[in-house]
Design brief:
Elements lengths: L8 H9 L5 H5 L5 E4 L14 E15 L4 E10 L2 E10 L8 H6 L5 E11 L2 E5 L2 E4 L11 E4 L8 H11 L12 H6 L5 H9 L4 H32 L13 H7 L6 H14 L6 E6 L5 H14 L3 E5 L3 H14 L7 E4 L6 H12 L4 E4 L13 E6 L7 H8 L6 E6 L5 H5 L6 E5 L9 E6 L1 H13 L3 E5 L7 H18 L5 E4 L5 H12 L5 E4 L12 E6 L7 H8 L9 E6 L5 H12 L3 H12 L7 H4 L13 H17 L9 H15 L6
Parallel strand pairs: 4-6, 9-14, 9-15, 10-12, 10-13, 11-12, 13-14, 16-21, 17-19, 17-20, 18-19, 20-21
Antiparallel strand pairs: 1-8, 2-3, 2-5, 3-4, 5-6, 5-7
Helix pairs in contact: 6-7, 7-22, 7-23, 9-10, 18-20
The protein binds adenosine-5'-diphosphate and magnesium ion (MG).
Magnesium ion binds next to helix 10.
């Protein structure tokens, strides 16, 4: 691509701030919106304040004072039978005349185009001019059409940038189209050159929408091709051990479980077992609300691995959670001929060495632990399955390390954060997804209410008097960790004053992990009654006796996070309450809080959160580095995503290395954008 002609060094530097160096960059600098600058019909100007486009002959131009600092220029424009006033504001200057150029240009009789919001002035309608130009016979990017509006940077004028894009638009033909022709025609997409031109300068909205669809498809298609490659490489790698049920362990486990699986649990177990029966390594994400019963599903998968003669690992993000899992396993596996061990960073005793030895010999079948499981001294004899709880705390690299331990074990990732479907299909597109979308019967509901702080604290008091426990959560302030600490520290002091006879604990992200675990341990044992915390309590902790949750400054939380936090209560037999406290919420926050109090469906809240705040909140560390979509919209493009995905997966099936000539440009694109992020080999 050539560098931009007619752009001096100063302007080039400014453009560099927008990352625009070449003609190609300019064409890919998509407009944020389009303004309708077709001439507005009389009588169709909309309400005062609406923008209108008007063309007329200049009859008069005058400059007058408008207060201490302001000058305004007024042009009277004759438009057919009527006249309209156009107004410009300029800051007064003692050094030069801010209206000098306009005075020279605006000679009576000259035809002028103006665009801007209108209102009623003293002499009829007047337009506050945002953009104007003299009317000539030449086609213009600025008037009588849909006009693109770009993101700008200081010193780059919108009109100038638009003119620049207009002047290079002829170069669209030189941009190579990475989309294979067959895919393009099958999905009814316009050619790339057409799409680029129409997305900047559409003749009508239908053309713009066609262009948008094509460009959004490209974004999804490139990512899905990368995801298809990742999956393909995994499948082409070392095989996984096929695990088939013998029922030796699963049958007694089910009988002893004391309840029936819900329909949703049965469905996901079938999905998982089907994957594990194959020699293609499973990579499945299991989503399910807190309390939806992921543990028994995970245990079923662990037992399937063990009864088919393999070993299995269960990995949790913290020691507390790992220990919690062990306690549950103890209960769930009582009486079954299965040996398991806990493996965390701390213990290096003789006993733990013996256990590691037994694990390496295959005498111990299940290892539960933290990321200590990833250490190189930890060896398995025949690892068939790895279950990773709260997957968003782990990165892809940890998964990769684990994968290298056995042959290539099946991997089941679990998360309590419901991920909207479009996200699961894109950023998590290399994974298969199962969802437990149903809670076990007989759960006491959590009542969520928006209340005053006083009311919330009386709720806490009542709970403590009844022997229950409470969380009080203070928000994280992203911009300033120190401020965040201050909020929770102040809140903690305040709570200690309000509850002088009660133990009030403090938990925040800046504490050392041993400290955190000590605090959580004391709360879990019921010694600490009230816990003042930042959202670090979000993940996986399970204290059935905690029945009250207070969310302070709730306006600072996203919906998904609010819901995630709510999952800390309602875990036992007692009814639970969630008090939402918010002093001065914005309109958006008011809607969010109301919706949160009304709905307990995590998937619905997640979809809503995606619509309001974009995908950032849902992305784990592994996905965080992936580029965001510029045209594609995860909240509204569900159908297009599904199309792009099936096209990409089919293409990789037909031409796994994208070696065909027609696929070369795509291969280059996919590699450039995703190879370093998704850790797959360069294609073609
Ligand atoms: P999650 O890990 O998804 O938050 P758990 O697996 O901890 O949920 O399950 C929460 C509680 O529900 C546990 O006490 C578990 O024994 C119980 N449970 C799980 N499945 C069922 C079911 N189908 N019927 C009744 N209780 C269930
Ligand atoms: Mg759990």
């Amino acid at each position: 691509m050539q560098f931009l002609a007619g752009v001096g060094p100063a302007r080039a530097k400014l453009l560099a701030k927008l990352k625009l160096a070449t003609v190609g960059d300019l064409l890919l600098h998509y407009p944020r919106a389009h303004e309708d600058r077709h001439l507005s019909q009389r009588g169709a100007w909309g309400a005062p304040g609406s923008a209108v486009a008007v063309e007329g002959e200049i009859q008069d131009f005058q400059v007058s004072g408008g207060g201490k600092d302001l000058l305004f220029g007024r042009a009277v424009l004759a438009t057919g039978s009527k006249s309209v006033e156009a107004v410009w504001f300029r800051r007064r200057s003692f050094r030069y005349d801010p209206f000098e150029t306009l005075k020279k240009k605006f000679i009576p009789g000259v035809k002028l185009f103006v665009y801007g919001p209108w209102q009623f002035g003293p002499r009829g309608p007047e337009i506050r001019v945002e953009d104007h130009e003299l009317v000539t016979d030449e086609a213009s990017p600025h008037r009588n059409r849909w006009v693109p509006v770009y993101d700008l940077t200081e010193g780059v004028d919108g009109r100038w940038l638009r003119g620049l894009v207009w002047s290079v638009r002829g170069a669209v033909g030189g941009v190579s189209d990475p989309l294979p022709e067959s895919v393009r025609t099958e999905h009814g997409l316009v050619p790339l050159a057409r799409a680029l031109e129409d997305f900047h300068f559409p003749t009508d909205l239908a053309a713009r929408d066609r262009a948008r669809r094509r460009l959004a498809f490209d974004e999804f298609f490139t990512l899905e091709t990368a995801m298809a490659r990742v999956r393909r490489e995994r499948h082409a790698g070392p095989p996984a051990p096929s695990c088939r049920p013998t029922k030796q362990l699963l049958s007694p486990f089910r009988q002893a479980m004391g309840f029936d699986f819900t329909g949703a649990q049965k469905r996901v177990i079938i999905e998982i077992f089907e994957d594990m029966g194959s020699t293609r390594p499973m990579n499945r994400l299991l989503m399910g609300e807190v309390g939806s019963g992921k543990t028994v599903v995970a245990v079923s998968a662990l037992l399937l691995a063990v009864e088919s003669g393999r070993q299995a690992a269960l990995m949790a993000p913290t020691e507390i959670l790992a220990e919690q899992h062990v306690r549950r396993l103890e209960r769930l596996l009582e009486g079954l001929p299965v040996r398991w061990m806990l493996l965390t960073g701390g213990r290096k005793s003789a006993e733990s060495r013996r256990q590691r030895e037994a694990l390496a010999q295959g005498e111990i079948q299940i290892a539960v632990g933290t990321h200590a499981l990833l250490e190189s001294q930890v060896t398995f004899k025949d690892l068939g399955l790895v279950v990773i709880d709260e997957q968003h705390r782990f990165g892809v690299d940890q998964r990769a390390v684990l994968g290298s331990k056995g042959v290539s074990p099946h991997i089941l990732l679990m998360t309590a954060t419901p991920i909207p479907r479009t996200l699961a299909l894109t950023y998590y597109g290399d994974l298969s997804v199962s969802a437990i979308d149903q809670l076990p019967p007989g759960r006491p509901p959590i009542v969520s209410r928006w209340t005053s702080e006083t009311e919330a604290l009386s709720g806490v008091r009542r709970a403590v008097q009844e022997g229950r426990q409470a969380y009080v959560v203070f928000p994280l302030v992203e911009e300033s960790e120190r401020l965040d600490l201050k909020a929770v520290l102040k809140g903690w002091e305040h709570l200690k004053e309000a509850f002088p006879d009660t133990t009030v604990g403090l938990l925040h992200g800046r504490m050392k992990s041993a400290e955190k675990e000590a605090v959580m341990g004391s709360f879990a044992r019921g010694e600490t009654k009230i816990l003042a915390a930042t959202p670090v309590i979000e993940v996986g902790i399970d204290v059935a006796n905690a029945t009250v949750l207070v969310l302070m400054n709730a306006e600072r939380f996203g919906l998904a996070q609010l819901h995630q936090l709510r999952g800390r209560v309602g875990r036992g037999v007692h009814a639970s309450s969630c008090y939402v406290v918010s002093g001065s919420p914005s309109l958006d926050a008011v809607e969010r809080i109301k919706m949160f109090c009304r709905t307990s469906d995590g998937f619905q809240l997640a979809e809503e959160d995606l619509r309001r705040r974009g995908p950032g909140e849902f992305l784990g560390s592994a996905q965080h580095g992936l580029p965001e979509f510029r045209v594609g919209n995860l909240a509204t493009d569900g159908a297009l995503i599904a199309e792009a995905r099936s096209a990409a997966f089919r293409l990789i099936q037909e031409d796994p290395d994208l070696a065909q000539p027609d696929h070369r440009a795509l291969a280059a694109d996919v590699t450039r954008r995703y190879a370093h992020r998704l850790h797959f080999a360069r294609v073609a």
